[in-house]
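DM from R.C. (forwarded with permission)

"hey, sorry to bug you on a friday — could you get me a structure for this? deadline for the figure draft is monday and I only need the backbone to look sensible"
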Amino acid sequence: MRGSVAFCLAVSFATFGFGVSLQCYSCPDGSSTSCEATQECNQEEDSCLKLKSGEQTYSSCIQHTDCDFMTLAVRYSLPQFTFNCCQSKLCNSHGKSFLKKVKEFFG
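My reply, with the result:
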């Protein structure tokens, strides 16, 4: 009996997931400063996007399968950009690099 209950639970979790959604920073219209807004991703959105074009940084939830240059080029219509997709909580922060923080500290 215990074995069948454990089996049913395992199948349910595999089918429907654990009910935990990913959380990402969300500035889909771009920001030149740090992005503080967060968003709970939809079930099909399994990654966080950080896309940088010039001084603007765009961030949002995204499907990992859409995290490629051609798809993002169509979606954002920007002349040049770099991007990164990650799959952990709030991993797409606009945080400054250590070197930039040191330069700002010392003027």
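R.C.: lifesaver. Strands lie at 23-25, 27-31, 38-40, 47-53, 56-62, 82-86.
me: no worries. Residues 15 and 107 are 54 Å apart (CA to CA).
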